[in-house]
Design brief:
With about 775 residues, the chain is an all-alpha fold. It contains 31 helices and 2 strands. Helices cover about 75% and strands about 0% of the residues. It has a two-stranded antiparallel ribbon with strand order 1-2. α18 packs antiparallel against α19.
């Protein structure tokens, strides 16, 4: 069936609408506003669920003149991500009512959380590049507010700025990639498909061929990788995610495990059929496996339960990225299935971490243990989700991890990748060993001895227990019957992200295969190494202390400090209070942008500049004007400079007369005469002598040449422009000027329509001259020091 536009729009718009009235809801409901958020999320879940089985794209005209519309695609891949956002969102809102009890700033918290949920649903369903970017950046904006919820906490503000810097910075790279895609799509598929991602995905071969012909395939691939990698915390941009744990635990569970950080990997899966190639495999498989391994190692080095979960989240996002990186159908199955599994067990683990911190009063790993006696239900939940995170059979994480191993082994069969065909499986197993280690360490919070320093641990409320329990129950269902999840929604997601598809089957292996051997090695080594966890933990933590550049925040701090110091130095140099400095920077920047634009667009070819055809009289006038300009530069006094400058102005007036434009000539004569008189009247206020060094003279000379060249090229380009169909345009204007222009003849209408802009320009010139004169009068006490 086809999707219904009204239902899709309502599912996207409802969270934003409720976010707008959150202040009113809070006045009525107080801290129970979380229940309203939960109801809103459930409503969105129901609306989206009503579209189950629908396939297609719907559009709402946005900017018709540019053929831009809000397009939304409904398929299993979009519904999977959108349903996760709304379903887990409902549980997070319910959890927040208990966890955020007594906190301040709850209006801002719930409004931002609702807007964030709407942004994620928008990204999931958007089929237009502009719409995707709009919702993409809204997720970054909302996460900035939520991570920085504790406004009085320096670490919270630091983390919020870091997340904003990295994710929005990555979004700018993505925007450039989108523009390049739109440029190529407009030529290859027609102007109507310029920003239509759905149309591009329907024609992947044509799009990929067009990108390669234009030499833009690798740039687009790299730009998308940077944008998606920044959002999904891929190495080397992984460091923002652990710092973001300064946010409240419900925020961590929602934004940084189930939804926001998955926006990047979701989009990788979405464009996978469009860009799938050997280059795609080498880039994303390498990036994903590197992130999976590095962040798993950092998770073992963690001392805080939320820090451990943060690094493990980045590691599992690397697994999903690697899965989508492998171009076989097994890669698509890995990415889609593990996105579902990870959202369920990791959101539950974060909520468990919130319960532990809330009831035990600490998040330090070394201060916690033996909590099964105090929190038996929470311990049962943790067993299910932690073993799933470890990839222990028969828990859900095992099935998608097994698919990764199969895809890594098969990669060398699909492409000739040489040594990487052995390296990819080895790295996948190595990273999985550390996954088992940190999963067992989290599980040890509830088993083993109870630290003496640990005080009384209270039982959590029902509102805190129900959300993770439901997520654990869903994890258990997928663990017991993975084929149920496959048939329900995973298979459809695979079909949307794979180049070629087949029926997907998962289950406990019944015979030996290389992937089974890899699982046995990873799990076995993880259990064998766990007794030495303390030594491994200490060894990893010692590395940043001995080699600072390897620490998570070192490069970010160094880069930001460099930008800050450089900005301060530049500000001191540019904003020094001197008119000369402001004029120099403004003129230099304007010239650079204008000339670069002419060069980039190929507007003018240098050899064309020598082809000048002018009558002898006009050539003589122009020659005199050029000589007057040179005389201005060589003049030895202010009076001589002003007089010779006026010669240049009068030559322009004569040129207008010879060009049969007496009205322009009259205007030029009047303006030139008035300015000459004004300059002569104020000449006494100008200092007789400036002490100017050779370096400043060279700078001013170079700037003057740049301004002159820019003006010359601009005039040449604009006067030589002959737009296609200019005769038809002129005829159209001539026929409609009088009846539709409100005048009595075409000359009057033309004067009103076009000369108004000319007059405005003349007024600007006079105003600038007046400002210059006023500045000279104010500075009459002496010259500038710079």
């Amino acid at each position: 069936m086809s999707p219904e536009l009204s239902i899709v729009l309502l599912a996207v718009a409802l969270p934003f609408a409720v976010a707008g009235v959150t202040p009113l809801l809070f006045r009525v409901l107080g801290e129970k506003t979380g229940y309203a958020g939960s109801v809103t999320a459930l409503a969105c879940f129901g609306l989206l669920a009503s579209q189950y089985g629908a396939e297609g794209t719907v559009a709402l005209e946005w900017i018709p003149s540019l053929e831009i519309a809000l397009r939304f695609t409904v398929d299993s891949w979009a519904l999977l991500f959108a349903l996760l956002a709304s379903g887990i969102g409902a549980l997070v809102f319910l959890y927040s009512t208990a966890y955020m009890h007594g906190e301040s700033g709850l209006v801002r918290y719930y409004a931002a959380l609702l807007a964030f949920m709407g942004s994620i649903i928008g990204v999931a369903l958007a089929a237009d590049l502009l719409s995707i970017f709009l919702f993409w950046e809204l997720t970054s904006l909302c996460s900035f507010v939520l991570i920085g919820h504790y406004t009085a906490d320096d670490s919270s503000q630091y983390a919020a700025r870091m997340a904003m810097f990295v994710t929005v910075g990555g979004g700018l790279f993505l925007l450039v990639g989108f523009l390049l895609l739109a440029l190529v799509a407009g030529d290859a598929l027609g102007p109507a498909a310029a920003f239509d991602l759905a149309a591009m995905l329907e024609n992947p071969d044509e799009m990929q061929s067009a990108l390669r012909e234009e030499g833009l395939f690798l740039p687009v691939l790299g730009l998308i990788a940077i944008g998606a990698g920044a959002k999904s915390a891929q190495v080397p941009l992984h460091f923002w995610l652990p710092n973001a744990m300064a946010a409240p635990t419900p925020v961590s569970a929602f934004l940084h495990s189930a939804t926001m950080v998955k926006v990047g990997v979701y989009f990788i899966g979405r464009v996978r059929p469009l860009l799938s190639s050997l280059e795609w495999l080498l880039l994303f498989a390498t990036l994903g496996l590197t992130t999976m391994t590095v962040c798993a190692i950092l998770a073992v080095a963690s001392t805080d339960i939320k820090e451990l979960l943060a690094y493990s989240t980045a590691s599992h996002l690397g697994l999903i990225t690697a899965g989508f990186g492998f171009t076989s159908v097994l890669g698509a199955e890995t990415g889609v299935f593990h996105l579902l599994n990870h959202a369920l067990f990791k959101a539950a683990l974060f909520l468990v971490a919130g319960i532990v911190a809330h009831e035990a009063g600490t998040r330090r790993l070394e201060d916690l243990g033996g909590l099964r006696h105090d929190l038996p239900i929470t311990a049962g939940i943790t067993v299910i989700v932690a073993l799933s995170m470890a990839g222990i059979p028969p828990f859900s994480g095992f099935y998608s991890k097994e698919l990764l191993f199969e895809a890594a082994v098969e990669a060398s069969h699909v492409h000739d990748i040489g040594l990487l065909g052995w390296l990819y499986p080895a790295v996948a197993v190595f990273g999985s060993v550390f996954t088992v280690l940190y999963s067992l360490r989290f599980l040890s919070l509830f088993f083993g001895g109870r630290p003496d320093a640990l005080g009384d641990v209270h039982r959590p409320s029902i509102a805190l227990l129900v959300p993770p329990a439901l997520l654990a129950a869903l994890t258990a269902v997928v663990s017991v019957d993975p084929e149920l999840a496959v048939h329900a929604i995973v298979q459809g997601g695979v079909d949307a992200t794979a180049v070629e598809t087949h029926a997907m089957h998962v289950g406990i292996p019944t015979s030996y295969s290389p992937a089974v051997g890899m699982s046995v090695v990873a799990i076995g080594l993880g259990f064998l190494a766990y007794p030495f966890y303390g030594r491994i933990h200490g060894g990893i933590r010692a590395i940043p202390r001995s080699v600072p550049p390897t620490s998570a925040n070192w490069w970010y701090d160094a880069f930001v400090d460099t930008l800050t110091d450089g900005g301060a130095r530049l500000a001191a140099r540019v904003h020094n209070g001197l008119l000369r400095t402001y004029a120099s920077w403004t003129l230099a920047g304007t010239c650079a942008l204008a000339l670069a634009g002419f060069a980039a667009t190929g507007t003018i070819v240098p050899v064309e500049l020598v082809d000048v055809d002018a009558p002898p009289v006009i050539a003589l006038v122009l020659l005199v004007a050029v000589m007057a300009g040179i005389a201005v530069v060589l003049s030895t006094s202010h009076i001589a400079g002003i007089l010779t400058l006026s010669i240049l102005g009068f030559m322009i007036a004569i040129f207008y007369i010879l060009a049969s434009a007496p009205d322009l000539a009259l205007t030029q004569l009047v303006v030139e005469t008035l300015i000459l008189v004004i300059f002569l009247l104020v000449i006494e206020e100008i200092p007789e002598y400036y002490e100017v060094g050779l370096g400043r003279v060279a700078r001013d000379a170079a700037l003057s040449l740049a301004v002159g060249a820019t003006a010359f090229v601009t005039v040449l380009v604009t006067t030589d422009a002959r737009p296609e169909g200019s005769t038809a345009i002129a005829r159209y204007y001539a026929e409609r000027a009088v009846p539709e222009g409100g005048g009595t003849n075409i000359v009057n209408v033309t004067l009103v329509d076009f000369r108004g802009f000319d007059t405005l320009g003349e007024l600007v010139v006079v105003a600038l001259a007046a400002i210059s004169i006023l500045t000279l009068i104010v500075m009459r006490e002496g010259g500038e020091e710079e």
